[in-house]
Hints:
Number of strands: 16
Order of helices and strands: EEEHEEEEHEHHEEHEHHEEEEHE
Structural class: alpha+beta
CATH architecture of the largest domain: 2-Layer Sandwich
Radius of gyration: 23 Å
Shape: globular
CATH topology of the largest domain: Pseudouridine synthase
CATH class of the largest domain: Alpha Beta
Low-confidence stretches: 1-13
Amino acid sequence: xxxxxxxxxxxxxxxxxxxxxxxxxxxxxxxxxxxxxxxxxxxxxxxxxxxxxxxxxxxxxxxxxxxxxxxxxxxxxxxxxxxxxxxxxxxxxxxxxxxxxxxxxxxxxxxxxxxxxxxxxxxxxxxxxxxxxxxxxxxxxxxxxxxxxxxxxxxxxxxxxxxxxxxxxxxxxxxxxxxxxxxxxxxxxxxxxxxxxxxxxxxxxxxxxxxxxxxxxxxxxxxxxxxxxxxxxxxxxxxxxxxxxxxxxxxxxxxxxxxxxxxxxxxxxxxxxxxxxxxxxxxxxxxxxxxxxxxxxxxxxxxxxxxxxxxxxxxxxxxxxxxxxxxxxxxxxxxxxxxxxxxxxxxxxxxxxxxxxxxxxxxxxxxxxxxxxxxxxxxxxxxxxxxx
Length: 388
């Protein structure tokens, strides 16, 4: 049989993607359940910028309260109200649509034109404060997010809810990317798989002219799809390590992250993991990281090796098209902690207004940027939508 006839096209090979419900749990899949987001106010998020504004400069900084609106929608409304191009509007993070959220936006707007901003306000969008700063707000600039989450009509014993909350508070949770990254029914992953596959040579998997692929023209859309691909691969790697019980334990060659920073370090091949490092890991001062795959930057001093690298490679090579596409389009490998622990986690029981004898559970906590509240909730209970 000719050699080429035995090869399967990477671009045409059927790829199966699994949802978040298949990912492993840190403390076993919960048997508890509750209704989530019955009302918009059941999920409240306040963004903590984490730095002072200088109160001068060409950028207006807006503290915006929105209900049932996406971050992108608010940015469009600001553009329409002022005539400022969308590229001159900044925000630090995407916030949930079905929620009551407050977050910061920046807009390059000359002083004296602030009154124009009121043109975007409505019952579901309100500008709470206006300040000034010298620089545009960039993605990932904020420090943390504060959450108030009301879980209604909880099913299961209070003791079990509180036991799982205590475990979350003490041991942290897997730092999975939430479903928002992947679109409804994983549509973002399926789309990026399709157009990355179209840019790969069917015979060998090598890259051909990417202009032949139906690459999204909008930079924001491309960025969103790249992010979905990297996030999906990260989740798969994290789930793999959870299944093997080493997601929060050091493996030879792991890259480590300093808590609350973007700084990383790794031990030398001949260095030994010692009791001091182990204590720092147990104290959440440092974290094991996993890859956000792409090309390895030659300037990157901290690259996984040994057992850790072998696991990362074994998981990622199951998704050849995504991995090859990310490398072709020039994305550089980054690292993300495999776990997070909530800050000041508190809870309070309330009487349900809907079901006789049932209880609601109000959670109050903060998370560092990039961590998902839904990843915390999946370790606590199964959440159902309104009416389910």
